[in-house]
């Protein structure tokens, strides 16, 4: 039998896993109980799934399918609904498979203001993006690149195909010479408003994170303003907004995601979808940093803000993923 | 201790591995003996390395480095030379690392007639190309995409960046509708001689192998001539020749590689580099099919042709990789 590799939980993660974790069979047994009888025991579902790592959830899914001849995700779909269902399903999925699904949803309902694809392509580690692309093959029997080309058009297509295709180097080495020439190129193209110029697209979609940060630092030193600010001159241009999102997502992912949460909460109606997406995709990665950034920016604990904007089991699930219920 | 996963040898491979393989420590001991004393025992080197799988060679490299505090590849470099050295070094490398090195060599000495990058991007399985890109990160501290952009220009750059970036779907499912519309697009662009049109580039660099084959079959049925033939009208255009190579490499890799070997052998002077590259990169993959294709095309066994064109230890090494010496 294959042993399950359990990676250590990141110190930036918020989820809490009990010191002694029940076996997958015990967890499945409890989940099955939560589904049976009058009504569903949502509390029990949360108390199990929200406190297991990706590897543990994978083992639960496999054990469940074998024991009951049905996919756990299917059972969950039958038992729960609404924002709570969305949160539990996204969370229970394998991260790579979840990203594949989110990317596919973003493409099928494509509009130029949609930033989910950029979020997935830029906030993930290169190897995680590759895993998502592999999951996309399995799920949809074609490549993510092909669907980007199918659903997007014009300059967005020219931008998004390389964005999801590139396998960015993840090392910390940077070339100052390159930072200088890339900054010059960016400055020229932005000044000329040649936003879809192939060199500009090429730099922001292909360079490593460390190299891109070096470039935007050099840009600021050399030209006096930040790339992000210079990309704000064309406020209504969705393409320029996408470029800005790519730079922010790639260089400052936690700041970017804090803003997504902030906007999701601050609007007249809460954007439950974005809130759920960021919490479920980052709870095991860096939500602690996003939480700290949120507090710094808003002077309100994220936990409290989420409690004020959500309700019922959806609220309980998000708070559990934030690590604030009793594991 | 981690156990070494030994994949089964492909039935299309030519290398022969003895029924009982010595331990990596024993192999290293023998290799060390081959390097010592007066002269090098080339025969002993071949009798070991040419008869080990990639996983076995990896174990030998690791054991050698640990036992002698020196990389096996370094010792080999010191002991042997010329075409024999090239063959042994390429063969001894991990396939992904070897592809990374070959791609880098092709880029550093870039000229528009160089097809090695295309060979690597298109004849490898998508996951192998990805492994090569990961090896490229480790070896060169930047991405293959970045180096393609650095060393190539113009239309070639527009073609080769997506070619090495795409993670092509490898499944066998094809869409007839897509084959039809892609064939129409290719026909239009080829007829207009708009060879670097983004749609044309996009189709041949992103579609899965099965889908591309369906497209070129549909092209032939619908328009009466093959894509390859239609791409021969501009014989002297290197860019068009590159497009042709991509289609042939992707759809008919063994036929393509047979031709590389044929041309390497047929020229006034033997192209030892190409011959060595194809034999070492395919001996564990599909050289048996390439060999059969060669015989069909030339009525001469490949073994005999290689024996006539090479000499000394280089010849012995290639013949051993073809599976014709006593393992």
UniProtKB/TrEMBL annotation, chains A, B:
Q: Which UniProt keywords apply?
A: Annexin, Calcium, Calcium/phospholipid-binding, Metal-binding, Repeat
Its BP terms in the Gene Ontology are: response to cold; response to heat; response to salt stress; response to water deprivation
> InterPro entries recorded for this chain?
Annexin (IPR001464), Annexin_repeat (IPR018502), Annexin_repeat_CS (IPR018252), Annexin_sf (IPR037104), AnnexinD_plant (IPR009118)
Per the record, its GO cellular-component terms are: cytoplasm; plasma membrane
Q: Name one GO molecular function term.
A: calcium ion binding
The residues the record assigns to binding Ca(2+) are 35, 37, 39, 79, 265, 309-310
Q: By its UniProt entry, which SMART domains does this protein fall under? A: ANX (SM00335)
Q: Which residues form the signal peptide?
A: none
State a single Pfam family of this protein: Annexin
What does the record say about domains? A pair of annexin repeats may form one binding site for calcium and phospholipid.
Q: Which family does it belong to?
A: Belongs to the annexin family.
According to UniProt, the name of this protein is Annexin
């Amino acid at each position: 039998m294959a042993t399950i590799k359990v990676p250590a939980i990141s110190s930036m993660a918020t989820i809490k896993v009990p010191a002694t974790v029940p076996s997958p069979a015990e967890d499945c047994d409890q989940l099955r109980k939560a589904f049976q009888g009058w009504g569903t025991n949502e509390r029990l579902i949360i108390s199990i799934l929200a406190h297991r790592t990706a590897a543990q959830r994978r083992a639960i899914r496999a054990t469940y399918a074998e024991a009951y001849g049905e996919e756990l995700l299917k059972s969950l779909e039958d038992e729960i609904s609404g924002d709570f269902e969305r949160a539990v399903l996204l969370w229970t999925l394998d991260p790579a498979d979840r990203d594949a699904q989110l990317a596919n949803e973003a493409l099928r309902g494509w509009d130029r203001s949609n930033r989910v694809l950029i979020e997935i392509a830029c906030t993930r580690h290169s190897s995680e993006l590759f895993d998502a692309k592999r999951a996309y093959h399995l799920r949809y029997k074609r490549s993510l690149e092909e669907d980007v080309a199918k659903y997007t058009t014009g300059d967005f297509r020219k931008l998004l195909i390389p964005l999801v295709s590139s396998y960015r180097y993840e090392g910390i080495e940077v070339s100052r010479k390159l930072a200088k020439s890339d900054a010059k190129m960016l400055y020229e193209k932005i000044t000329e408003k040649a936003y879809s110029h192939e060199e500009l697209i090429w730099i922001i979609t292909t360079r490593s994170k460390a190299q891109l940060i070096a470039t935007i630092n050099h840009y600021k030193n050399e030209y006096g303003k930040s790339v992000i600010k210079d990309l704000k001159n064309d406020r209504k241009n969705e393409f320029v907004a996408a470029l800005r999102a790519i730079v922010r997502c790639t260089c400052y992912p936690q700041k970017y995601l804090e803003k997504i949460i902030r906007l999701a909460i601050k609007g007249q109606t809460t954007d439950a979808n974005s809130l759920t997406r960021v919490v479920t995709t980052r709870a095991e990665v860096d939500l602690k940093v996003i939480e700290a950034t949120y507090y710094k920016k808003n002077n309100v604990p994220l936990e409290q803000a989420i409690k004020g904007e959500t309700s019922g089991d959806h609220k309980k699930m998000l708070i559990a993923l934030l690590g604030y219920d009793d594991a």
